[in-house]
Amino acid sequence: MLFGRSAIALALCLASTGMAKAGMRTCGSQDPVDTINEMFAALYACWEPPANAGGLSMTLTFSLRSNGTIIGKPRQTHASLGEDERLNEAFVHSVHEALDRAVPLPLSKSMGGAIAGRLLAPRFVVVDE
């Protein structure tokens, strides 16, 4: 059973590293989220990274309830930041702000049942400018 949970968490993490195209969805859209890609697109649509943040990245882990709200507090599990402390702070703040704007996610009933309580790990990456 433990292997099954780990495999699901890994699959969700790997799915998130593809950085779904946020352009297909607007922040706060109430269109039902039916897939992992739609879920990450909903998060990324609310993300506004600071200017000149190319090369910075951060991964958060958290779980959602079936109603699309976050369980507990998201935890930073990875960060690749730069030397500019102000930019780093602005970048980290932008990621947390994206979550605040995106949740609760409008999960479909089947999606909510499938991911409730599962570990999610979206990776927020700014491609070098």
CATH architecture: 2-Layer Sandwich
Shape: elongated
CATH-assigned fold name = Fusion Protein Consisting Of Minor Coat Protein, Glycine Rich Linker, Tola, And A His Tag, Chain: A, Domain 2
Helix content: 25-40%
Please tally the β strands and state the result.
3
Characterize the structure shown:
The chain is an alpha+beta fold. The chain has one domain (2-125): Fusion Protein Consisting Of Minor Coat Protein, Glycine Rich Linker, Tola, And A His Tag, Chain: A, Domain 2 (2-Layer Sandwich). Helices cover 39% and strands 17% of the residues. The chain has four helices and three strands. It has helices spanning 2-16, 36-45, 85-102, 109-115; strands spanning 57-64, 70-80, 123-125. It has a three-stranded antiparallel sheet, covered by helices on one side. Strand 1 (57-64) and strand 2 (70-80) form a beta hairpin. The longest helix is centred in the last third of the chain and has 18 residues, at 85-102.
Please render the helix and strand layout as text.
Blueprint: H1 2-16, H2 36-45, E1 57-64, E2 70-80, H3 85-102, H4 109-115, E3 123-125
Helix pairs in contact: 2-3
Question: What is shown here, in short?
Answer:
With 129 residues, the chain is of the alpha+beta class. It has four helices and three strands.
